[in-house]
């Protein structure tokens, strides 16, 4: 089971801050994950497809779309960061 | 000493500054600080909500503070950042730096704030009479942040 975390505008799109899901073994990369979510929920997928939405697997930011997310217990979708 | 605190609780910048000033050692000749407040903008903003990523946000803010302190010759660096619902006019963030001379303290505070604006895992929404909207960094924020990596 993997916990998906949604922040900022992705939380609005998902309708919640986190959800648990069983990610199929064939889903290996960030790009695979975005496509898999879009196939299940096109509206959420469209929001997550934006290039300024970064992905972190187990609190490490994935450097590109080919980065592996296999085995991650927690995957976060993060719009542009904005503190201060 | 580098201290970072991410907290849902209100804090008093004045109390924190007094404590930092009292703790300073004989080498410290400069204390610079910045306080960011939730603007009410004449009633256009009733509150901000700061979302964060528990664990990751604390680690990243600490990492950023250590990187700023490493580039400037600081004696102390304090960063307090609120999360959760922040009513208009409340302080959101305090950054304070102690150093021997003023240049390092001024530079460190400005740099830490620029990093908090674009590199710290917070997501900010603003609520007013017309509802809520997410606030994301603008080009000027990224330009200021880029100045520090030249």
TrEMBL record, chain A:
Pfam families reported for this sequence: ThiS
UniProt xrefs under InterPro entries: Beta-grasp_dom_sf, Mopterin_synth/thiamin_S_b, ThiS/MoaD-like
Superkingdom classification of source: Bacteria
Coiled-coil positions: none
Record protein name field: Molybdopterin synthase sulfur carrier subunit
Organism for this UniProt entry: Candidatus Viadribacter manganicus
Origin organism lineage: Bacteria, Pseudomonadati, Pseudomonadota, Alphaproteobacteria, Hyphomonadales
From TrEMBL, chain B:
UniProt catalytic activity: 2 [molybdopterin-synthase sulfur-carrier protein]-C-terminal-Gly-aminoethanethioate + cyclic pyranopterin phosphate + H2O = molybdopterin + 2 [molybdopterin-synthase sulfur-carrier protein]-C-terminal Gly-Gly + 2 H(+)
Classification via SUPFAM superfamilies: Molybdopterin synthase subunit MoaE (SSF54690)
Domain of life: Bacteria
GO molecular function: molybdopterin synthase activity
GO biological process: Mo-molybdopterin cofactor biosynthetic process
Listed InterPro entries: MoaE_sf, Mopterin_biosynth_MoaE
Keywords per UniProt: Molybdenum cofactor biosynthesis
Pathway: Cofactor biosynthesis; molybdopterin biosynthesis
UniProt-listed Enzyme Commission number(s): 2.8.1.12
Coiled-coil features, chain-numbered ranges: none
Record keyword Isomerase present: no
Cited PANTHER family: MOLYBDOPTERIN SYNTHASE RELATED
Record's subunit section: Heterotetramer of 2 MoaD subunits and 2 MoaE subunits. Also stable as homodimer. The enzyme changes between these two forms during catalysis.
Biological function: Converts molybdopterin precursor Z into molybdopterin. This requires the incorporation of two sulfur atoms into precursor Z to generate a dithiolene group. The sulfur is provided by MoaD.
Family assignment from sequence similarity: Belongs to the MoaE family.
Protein name per its UniProtKB record: Molybdopterin synthase catalytic subunit
């Amino acid at each position: 089971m993997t916990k998906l975390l949604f922040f900022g505008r992705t939380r609005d799109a998902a309708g919640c801050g986190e959800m648990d899901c069983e990610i199929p073994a064939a889903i290996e990369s960030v790009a695979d994950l975005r496509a898999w979510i879009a196939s299940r929920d096109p509206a959420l997928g469209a929001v997550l497809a934006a290039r300024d939405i970064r992905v972190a697997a187990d609190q490490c930011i994935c450097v590109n779309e080919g980065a592996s997310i296999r085995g991650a217990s927690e995957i976060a979708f993060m719009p542009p960061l904005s503190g201060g | 000493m580098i201290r970072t605190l991410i907290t849902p609780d209100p804090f008093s910048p004045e109390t924190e500054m007094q404590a930092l000033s009292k703790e300073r050692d004989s080498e410290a000749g400069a204390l610079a600080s910045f306080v960011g407040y939730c603007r009410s903008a004449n009633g256009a903003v009733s509150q901000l909500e700061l979302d964060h990523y528990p664990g990751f946000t604390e680690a990243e803010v600490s990492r950023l503070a250590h990187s700023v302190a490493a580039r400037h010759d600081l004696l102390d660096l304090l960063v307090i950042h609120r999360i959760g619902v922040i009513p208009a006019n409340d302080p959101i963030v305090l950054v304070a730096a102690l150093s021997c001379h003023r240049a390092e303290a001024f530079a460190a505070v400005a740099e830490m704030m620029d990093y908090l604006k674009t590199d710290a895992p917070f997501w900010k929404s603003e609520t007013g009479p017309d509802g809520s909207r997410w606030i994301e960094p603008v080009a000027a924020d990224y330009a200021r942040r880029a100045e520090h990596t030249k």
